[in-house]
């Protein structure tokens, strides 16, 4: 949720009161709520620390310096790859490591990397110096699947002429450097089914496409949660690929420099990398190659390549990264439009907790309406538009309001409204509704945040579940999934298929989930791009269930206590 939510809340309050519906705002559980006029993210310094990595002066690095690969994202031209990242506020920052402060370096706001025509990007990809003019290019990926080319500058980016649609057929788009040996940086893209394609760079960065026709590199790549490129990890002067499984095993695919972009046989590097929620590659012109990992506390750790597919002992890199929701070049498309927990008391007060990227929440905020909202239906959904913001639903008397906008009448025929994200594959979040005959319907979104197309019947027999919910991807394939809790306490997932429906259900939790009196899908709050759950037991203790990217009964990892006092809420959303 962004600070722009405050204006929508104000509008929603006025409309809700006029319609006999009442609104208020978000909270925390362990302390007395302090009323505020609006809900915004706390004013925190989103800039994170990071010490400039320096490769030791060894014979191995001296040998490879002459054959070192060009950096994918060296904005200031100092020979060290820079870092671009986005804070929870939506503001982007550039870290160049060249300031007086050895930890912050030059760490300023990067303009021109936010929304375009009101549309947020959901990924940003360092592409390398596509036209070899000494300035690196970036690619931004919109919610609707448009890839746009930008030239990176020290304090921002300027748009170039090219953009292309249709990239929402991929769940990963990765800049990888020169794989084909012609000196031009290339691009990799992976489909939801696991097919990997190479888009060879053609040496341009203007109005024409910077890439040639795609080349198939085969299937089976869906076993990896992260795919990273741009470094040389076997000291042969060719760009390699790193790929990590959800279970934490890291593989190196050696580049061959072949015109077809094929890789050599993979080698197993090491295990345990699932202790990090995001991985990144850093390089320098002296032949240094590092792997950077962010842990669950928001600290980043640096591993220097040993030139043989392995890594040296880790070194502390920096802290404060729990406020970062997107690293440029992290090799994945993050969840879009949901990362918060909302609680409503019996008196109708509503409290909001923003999710950090370390499995925790910020301090609660109380959102004040003109009256409490205890007598109306309420839900928090993944974004129904192109903005990276959750949608707030209120309904009563058959009338539905979304973010202060009137969404029509007749909604009293439904007993459950759920916004899990994009169901039909167009990039915009959609609405699911279960009627009183237990038939499930899909309302495809127009993408403007509150209007829907004609409903589509998804099937009957949904009365066997006492809760339908979801907020993004829990299976690890990048598509929004529907979760359902059976009346017997079992938990199921209906994997999204991207074509206005869901695949066959899969059991992801044995009986016992009914012991959680409140259960909510809160989006990604652990920083790995997968949607997490929060449950509250009868004693009022809240627990976090972290999505793992694994399958079946391993979909969620244990539970982490978030503390007591949560029985102050009758609803947790």
The description of the largest β-sheet is: 5 strands, mixed
> Cα-atom Rg, whole angstroms?
24 Å
Q: If strands are numbered along the chain, what order do they take across the biggest sheet?
A: 1-24-23-22-41
Low-confidence blocks of residues: 1-38
Q: Helix segment count?
A: 2
Q: How far is the N terminus from the C terminus?
A: 14 Å
Shape: globular
Going by helix content, strand content and strand pairing, the class is mainly beta
Helix content: under 10%
> How many DSSP-defined strands?
41
Q: In percent, how much strand structure appears in the residues?
A: 35-45%
Mean of pLDDT = 86
Question: What does the secondary structure layout of this molecule look like, with pairings?
Answer:
Elements: H1 5-18, E1 35-36, H2 59-65, E2 83-87, E3 92-95, E4 107-109, E5 121-128, E6 137-142, E7 147-153, E8 156-164, E9 170-177, E10 186-191, E11 196-199, E12 215-216, E13 226-231, E14 240-244, E15 250-253, E16 267-270, E17 276-283, E18 289-295, E19 300-304, E20 315-318, E21 324-327, E22 340-344, E23 350-354, E24 365-367, E25 377-381, E26 391-396, E27 399-402, E28 405-406, E29 414-421, E30 430-435, E31 440-443, E32 456-459, E33 465-469, E34 482-486, E35 491-494, E36 506-509, E37 516-523, E38 532-537, E39 542-547, E40 556-563, E41 571-572
Parallel strand pairs: 1-24
Antiparallel strand pairs: 2-3, 2-21, 3-4, 5-6, 6-7, 7-8, 9-10, 10-11, 11-12, 13-14, 14-15, 15-16, 17-18, 18-19, 19-20, 22-23, 22-41, 23-24, 25-26, 26-27, 27-28, 29-30, 30-31, 31-32, 33-34, 34-35, 35-36, 37-38, 38-39, 39-40
């Amino acid at each position: 949720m962004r600070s722009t939510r405050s204006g929508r809340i104000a509008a929603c309050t006025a409309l809700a009161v006029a319609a006999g519906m009442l609104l208020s705002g978000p909270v925390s559980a362990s302390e007395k709520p302090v009323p505020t006029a609006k809900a915004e993210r706390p004013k925190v310094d989103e800039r994170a620390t990071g010490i400039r990595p320096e490769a030791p002066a060894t014979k191995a690095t001296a040998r490879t310096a002459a054959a070192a690969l060009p950096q994918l994202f060296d904005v200031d031209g100092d020979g060290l790859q820079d870092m671009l990242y986005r804070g929870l506020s939506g503001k982007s920052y550039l870290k160049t490591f060249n300031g007086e402060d050895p930890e912050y370096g030059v760490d300023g706001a990067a303009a021109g990397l936010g929304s375009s025509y009101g549309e947020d990007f959901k990924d940003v990809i360092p592409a390398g110096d596509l036209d070899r003019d000494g300035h690196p290019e970036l690619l931004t990926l919109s919610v609707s699947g448009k890839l746009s080319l930008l030239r990176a500058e020290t304090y921002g980016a300027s748009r170039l002429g090219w953009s292309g649609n249709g990239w929402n057929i991929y769940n990963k788009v990765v800049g990888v450097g020169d794989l084909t040996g012609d000196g031009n940086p290339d691009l990799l893209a992976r489909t939801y089914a696991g097919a990997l394609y190479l888009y060879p760079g053609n040496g341009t960065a203007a109005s024409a496409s910077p890439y040639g026709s795609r080349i198939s590199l085969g299937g089976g790549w869906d076993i990896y949660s992260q795919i990273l490129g741009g470094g040389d990890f076997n000291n042969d002067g060719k760009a390699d690929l790193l790929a990590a499984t959800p279970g934490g095993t890291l593989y190196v695919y050696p580049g061959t420099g072949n015109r077809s972009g094929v890789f050599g046989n993979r080698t197993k590097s090491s295990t345990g990398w699932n202790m990090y929620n995001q991985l990144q590659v850093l390089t320098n012109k002296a032949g240094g190659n590092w792997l950077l990992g962010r842990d669950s506390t928001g600290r980043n750790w640096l591993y220097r390549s040993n030139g043989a597919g392995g890594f040296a002992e880790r070194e502390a890199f920096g802290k404060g990264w729990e406020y970062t929701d997107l690293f440029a070049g992290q090799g994945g498309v993050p969840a879009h439009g949901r990362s918060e927990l909302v609680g409503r008391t019996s008196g109708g007060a509503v409290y909001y907790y923003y999710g950090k990227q370390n499995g925790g929440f910020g301090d609660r905020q109380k959102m004040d309406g003109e009256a409490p909202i205890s007598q109306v239906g309420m839900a928090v959904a993944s974004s129904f538009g192109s903005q990276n913001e959750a949608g707030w639903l209120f309904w009563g008397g058959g009338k539905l309001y979304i973010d202060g906008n009137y969404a029509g009448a007749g909604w009293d025929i439904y007993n459950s409204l759920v916004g899990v994200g994009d169901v039909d594959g167009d990039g915009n979040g959609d609405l699911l509704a279960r009627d009183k005959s237990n038939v499930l319907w899909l309302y495809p979104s127009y993408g403007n945040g509150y209007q829907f197309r004609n409903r589509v019947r998804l099937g009957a027999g949904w009365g066997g579940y006492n809760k339908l919910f979801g907020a993004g991807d829990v299976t690890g394939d990048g598509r929004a999934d529907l979760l359902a809790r059976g009346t017997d306490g079992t938990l199921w997932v209906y994997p999204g298929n991207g074509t206005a429906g869901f695949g066959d259900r899969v059991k992801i939790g044995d009986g016992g989930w009914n012991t959680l009196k409140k259960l909510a899908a809160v989006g990604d709050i652990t920083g790995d791009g997968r949607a997490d759950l929060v449950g509250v037991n009868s004693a009022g203790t809240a627990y976090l269930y972290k999505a793992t990217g694994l399958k079946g009964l391993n979909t969620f990892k244990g539970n982490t206590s978030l503390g007591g006092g949560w029985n102050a809420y009758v609803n947790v959303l």
